[in-house]
Write a structure and sequence with these properties.
Helices cover 40% and strands 22% of the residues. By secondary structure, it is α/β, with parallel strands linked by helices. The strands form 3 sheets. The protein has a 5-stranded parallel beta sheet, with helices on both faces. It has a 4-stranded antiparallel beta sheet with strand order 6-7-8-9, with helices on one face. A 3-stranded antiparallel beta sheet has the order 10-12-11. Helix 5 packs across helix 7 and helix 6 crosses helix 8. The two termini are 23 Å apart.
């Protein structure tokens, strides 16, 4: 995934760039608004700080949206409700307030791309793990051809794991993408939902626990 980081604070950029790179992202950093509009055509996601030295961040966000359909996440210390509303009205897909957890930022990047239908395969296609089929476009799951009724959050968790195709999804990412926030009892809530998902699927070994990290599906997708 190609990420354009528009951030004037060198300390923030120096911490964020390697963290994103370790998570498989190719990062290009610009310290101001200069060159941003020329660069957006070559990236998948823009992480946009609002406090830039040469242009108002909201103005730049509107200019990016006018020039491109690239995903934009505002990452700013401005946390007032009015700022968040203005950022979204300016064309941002999401708004994250500093300081933030890197896991949450990565989760939001993936969530934005998923909402836009990117990186999820052919629309309407089924992801298959043994006799379990996850029909992404129809929000349906079948086991051995029989439909299984899942709650919205259960389906979101299974879809995320299926799209990862055997790679581990961290607890932090699942919580951030499915619940949109974290809280003191989040890990316990996640464990309960995973247990319920296993029971409903009738395939207790399909969703594997990777101790201390997260979850993954036990076998690679066949479809």
């Amino acid at each position: 995934m190609r990420v354009l980081l528009v951030e004037d604070d060198d300390r923030v950029a120096e911490a964020l760039e390697p963290a994103l790179t370790r998570r498989g992202m190719a990062v290009t950093r610009l310290p101001s608004g200069k060159g941003v509009l020329e660069a957006v055509g070559n990236v998948d996601v823009v992480l946009l700080d609002l406090g830039l030295p040469d242009v108002d961040g909201f103005v730049l966000c509107r200019a990016i949206r006018a020039a491109s359909d690239v995903a934009v996440i505002v990452v700013s210390a401005r946390g007032e409700v009015d700022d968040r509303i203005l950022g979204l009205h300016s064309g941002a897909d999401d708004y994250l307030v500093k300081p933030y957890d890197i896991g949450e930022l990565v989760a939001r990047v993936h969530a934005v791309r998923r909402r836009r239908g990117e990186g999820s395969g052919t629309p309407g296609a089924a992801l298959t793990f043994g006799d379990v089929e996850v029909h992404m476009g129809r929000y349906e799951v079948t086991v051995a051809g029989a439909p299984v009724a899942l709650s919205r959050k259960e389906f979101q968790m299974l879809a995320m794991l299926a799209q990862a195709r055997g790679a581990v999804c961290t607890r932090e990412r699942i919580i951030a993408e499915v619940w949109g926030r974290s809280w003191s009892g989040a890990n316990r809530t996640l464990d309960v939902h995973i247990a319920t998902l296993r029971t409903k699927l009738g395939r207790p070994d399909l969703v594997e626990t990777v101790r201390g990290v997260g979850y993954r599906l036990a076998s690679p997708a066949e479809g």
